[in-house]
Amino acid sequence: MIRIALRILVAGGLLGLLVGCSPLKVLNAFTPKGTFSKTADLSYGNDPRNRLDVYTPIDAPTDAPVVVFFYGGSWNSGSRSDYGFVGEALASRGIVAVLADYRLYPQVHYQGFLEDSARAVSWTREHIRRYSGDPSQLYVMGHSAGGYNAAMLALDPKWLAAVGMKPSMLSGWIGLAGPYDFLPIENAAVKPVFFFPNSPPDSQPINHVSAASPPALLIAAKDDSVVNPTRNTGGMARSLREQGVSVRELYYAKPGHATLVAAFSRPMRGLAPVLDEVVDFIHAHNPVPR
């Protein structure tokens, strides 16, 4: 009982930090190191931001499923080092996790971060066998702006085509509180990223859904005040279903926009079974021994 109480207190304190100021680094202090081996600072391109880390499960088989994860930050900020808890969470369930940085505004506008995201996926497909991953079991996943990146790679064929791939090479995509339909742009930090008021319609993932789109898992906070879940997650799920694409759509009451991804961390998993749903989605599309 004492250990349970301590965990509740820790989780409560972390929730306050997460809501308060730039939070996610704190979760890495509570992330165990014994579930994975990490290969850090691998280059997938020429820019200093073109770097990624690979989290390989301890005792992983040689054909583990692979998730390339893109973080959020309004395409203005973010670092893969803040999200080690996501890498650990996936590795602890037998999944090879690739966490990639990408160029941000003002260094690039739309489309530069999508070009980088595609390069990171291409690098993963080419090299991941060295890290016990199976490139035929390849998923993209992202939170917030990173969910947008994942969606665009999965839905608009031109991004992967530029690196010799196609969306059908993905086993699926996973969006966490992603913005998929957000014109006209209201967020002041995002407006210059997408050339507001001349934001191109083809920048919107919702406009690229087709019957050929990969299966999707879409998760959102029910009361997300940053990215409208009804318009974005709900609208995307509806659009995919209308095209006959397999999609699982989930909304959770406890987490908010930021704490939805924090629910991958061990202290915060009581907020929502996000990790379980991601793992189940992956196993459903590429069954592997548990």
Q: In summary, what is this structure?
A:
The chain is an alpha/beta fold. The protein has helices at about 1-20, 25-30, 85-90, 110-125, 145-155, 155-160, 230-240, 255-260, 275-285, and strands at about 35-45, 50-55, 65-70, 95-100, 135-145, 170-175, 215-220, 245-250.
Can you give a write-up of this model?
This protein is an alpha/beta fold and 290 residues long. The protein has one domain: 3-Layer(aba) Sandwich (Rossmann fold). It is built from 9 helices and 8 strands. The chain has helices spanning 2-20, 25-28, 84-92, 112-127, 145-155, 157-161, 230-242, 257-262, 274-285, and strands at residues 36-43, 51-57, 64-70, 96-100, 133-143, 172-176, 216-221, 247-252. The protein has an 8-stranded mixed beta sheet, sandwiched between helices. Strand 1 (36-43) and strand 2 form a beta hairpin. The two termini are 30 Å apart. Residues 1-22 have low confidence and may be disordered.
Q: Provide the helix percentage.
A: 25-40%
Q: Give the end-to-end Cα distance, rounded to a whole number of Å.
A: 30 Å
Q: Could you tell me the number of beta strands?
A: 8
Radius of gyration: 18 Å
CATH topology: Rossmann fold
Strand portion, in percent?
A: 15-25%
CATH structural architecture: 3-Layer(aba) Sandwich
At the first level of CATH, the class is Alpha Beta
Structural class: alpha/beta
> Could you give the order of the helices and strands?
HHEEEHEHEHHEEHEHH
Shape: globular
Sheet bearing the most strands, described?
A: 8 strands, mixed
